[in-house]
Automatic annotation (TrEMBL):
Domain AMP-dependent synthetase/ligase: 41-418
InterPro entries (alphabetical): AMP-bd_C, AMP-bd_C_sf, AMP-binding_CS, AMP-dep_synth/lig_dom, ANL_N_sf
Keyword Ligase appears in the UniProt entry: yes
Keywords: Ligase
Organism name: Collybia nuda
All copies of domain AMP-binding enzyme C-terminal, residue ranges: 469-555
Pfam families noted in UniProt: AMP-binding (PF00501), AMP-binding_C (PF13193)
SUPFAM superfamilies from the UniProt entry: Acetyl-CoA synthetase-like
GO molecular function, one term: CoA-ligase activity
Protein name: Amp dependent CoA ligase
Length: 574
């Protein structure tokens, strides 16, 4: 099979605009439907019910510009400064990204549940100069900042409940208020033609098989291109809004539940929704009862989720008493949604269509999207406009239809590479092509099915966990002589990490002298839970084995252990 691409043409992508210029200012793209009237609501704060409009009431554009002035006056944000945001979802999370981008700064985002140890790595990797966080996470953020040499005065908070000694009291609202008093003009970054292609806007962290997180640098152009690609597909070859049943119509309400620290949550969900004129209901955190209530309360029409959310919803006994007939679309990503689960979801959301997508941070979220229909065949769908792809077999030749090989793609939304990791950049980004690391099969009609993750990442609630990272950490424990971590399926999280461990001589001696095997395993699990974010805990369990299967070159053969589990009918481990 030769290179293949979408039959839908990619509309013009401006290469001289920053993201806030594209979304907030007077620019209007032909296929966008952004509502910029003063009273047009853009966001709802799900926890309070407050509505944030473009120009009146709680003003998003004005709030962004006031924050720009406050940051410029009090924090001397310089061009290309990297500011790390570590927080649950928040309205001002979005405002802060726009304000920082107006000043030419780079916004990096991190999972708020990262440990201090993990945060120190990220701060150093990206040369972060300032941090924006939530007061609740200062216990991990504070020590990480100290270790990285970032002063307390360079930590800002979204909200603060009380003033405490040693806690920074400057909040985003403080700076907005100061900016409102200013008579200065709002500074803004003006880019030359082509400048948006090189200017970094966002950094997201993607785990790799090397065991360390990789900082994916995304340009303003890549983000804008991705928004236009997703919109062009939704518009179906120029049709204004697609089938009325599931169409994403201006003023429809869409969930803002996915974490903004992830490219799917911030770009594919929120930024894109703004471009389409949708109203985003921003959830600070997911609790099933509150989420189900909000679907009805705010008449949410479009649910952007990950498969574990769908599982939780379908298993909740209260759903049979709810009317969700207004829900038009369920879209999932980050992991595969099985066909049986699609059927369960349709039983709950009787008028909804279902779609799922495939993407990776390195190619700016979405690369593939399945058709919007009642039930699809479980494929990831077809390429978005502007993306060219090929399937490459192990011998370097191109695969024929229905043969498997690695998915390799090129797109206007390609990332610039990995910050501070030239080796990984050269391995993944080759002559304009992004190597996905995923083994796929492509049908004659262009539908793509993911067969195997060559990168061997573990998807825990849509969060990528690198087995190599956990294996490296396990090897530091005295009970462990060798280790291999693989995924096991879990109904609620999608997958969980399971460790196969070769006990050390010391561990064998302890067990011989009376320590139980379960106690040794518990200590090994605790070694991970004490140092890693919860998604990386060995919730799939620990199993002792005599040796870890490896290739002649020493590469761990995780597939051998996965197949062993499958052949023995084991769905989980203890």
């Amino acid at each position: 099979m030769a290179e293949f691409r979408s039959s839908i043409p990619l509309p013009y992508v401006p290469d001289d605009l920053t993201i806030p210029q594209f979304l907030l200012d007077d620019y209007k793209h032909p296929i966008g439907e952004m509502r910029k009237g003063n009273n047009d609501v853009w966001f709802i704060d799900d926890s309070t019910g407050k509505r944030f409009s473009y120009g009146e009431g709680i003003q998003l554009k004005a709030r962004t510009n006031y924050l720009v002035l406050g940051l410029a006056s009090f924090y001397n944000i310089l061009d290309n400064d990297v500011v790390l945001i570590i927080s649950p979802n928040h309205i001002d999370y979005i405002v802060a990204t726009w304000a920082l981008q107006r000043l030419g700064a780079v916004v990096a985002t991190a999972n708020p549940l990262f440990t201090t140890e993990e945060l120190v790595q990220l701060l150093d990797m990206c040369k972060v100069t300032k941090i924006i966080t939530d007061e609740r996470f200062l216990t991990s953020v504070g020590p990480a900042a100290d270790a990285a040499g970032i002063p307390t005065s360079s930590i800002l908070l979204f909200d603060i409940s009380e003033i405490r000694t040693g806690v920074p009291i400057t909040t985003i609202s403080d700076l907005v208020n100061e900016g409102q008093k200013s008579t200065d003009e709002v500074p803004g970054r003006t880019l030359e033609p082509g400048g948006a292609r090189k200017k970094i806007a966002l950094i997201f962290f993607s785990s790799g098989t090397t065991g360390k997180p990789k900082a994916v640098a995304l340009s303003h152009y890549a983000v804008i291109a991705s928004i236009i690609q997703m919109t062009a597909l939704q518009r179906e070859n120029g049709k204004p809004r697609g089938p009325g049943k599931w169409a994403l119509l201006s003023e429809d309400v869409i969930t803002g539940l996915l974490p903004f620290s992830h490219v799917y949550g911030l770009v594919a969900n929120v930024y894109w929704a703004c471009f389409l004129g949708l109203i985003v209901d921003v959830f600070p955190k997911f609790t099933l009862a509150a989420f189900l209530t909000s679907i009805t309360k705010y008449r949410i029409a479009h649910l952007y989720l990950v498969p574990p959310h769908v599982v939780s919803i379908c298993k909740d006994p209260s759903i049979e008493f709810q009317d969700y007939s207004h829900v038009k679309l369920i879209f999932t990503g980050a992991a595969s949604l099985s066909v049986p689960l699609m059927h369960k979801a349709i039983d709950v959301f009787s008028n909804a269509s279902i779609a799922q997508g495939y993407g990776m941070t390195e190619i700016m979220v979405a690369a593939l999207q399945s058709p919007m229909q009642r039930i699809n065949d479980g494929s990831c769908g077809q390429l978005l406009p502007g993306i060219v792809a090929k399937v490459v077999r192990a011998d370097g030749t191109l695969a024929r239809p229905n043969e498997t090989g690695e998915l390799v793609m090129s797109s206007p939304s390609n990332a610039l590479g990995y910050i501070g990791n030239d080796e990984a950049t050269k391995a993944t980004f080759v002559d304009g092509w992004v190597h996905s690391g995923d083994e796929v099969r492509v049908t004659e009609t262009g539908d793509i099915f993911v067969v195997e993750r060559l990168k061997e990442l573990i998807n825990v609630q849509g969060i990528q966990v690198a087995p190599a990272e956990l294996e490296d950490h396990l090897m530091a424990h005295p009970h462990v002589a060798d280790a291999c971590v693989i995924p096991v399926p879990d109904e609620h999280t999608g997958e969980l990490p399971l460790a196969f461990v070769v006990p050390s001589v010391a561990a064998k001696k302890l067990m011989k002298n009376g320590m139980s095997e379960d106690d040794v395993k518990t200590e090994i699990q605790k070694h991970v839970s004490d140092h890693k974010v919860k998604d990386k805990w060995l919730a799939g369990g620990v199993r002792f084995i005599d040796s870890v299967p490896k290739s002649p070159s020493g590469k761990i053969l995780r597939r051998v252990l996965r197949e062993s589990l499958r052949n023995n009918g084991i769905a989980s481990a203890a």
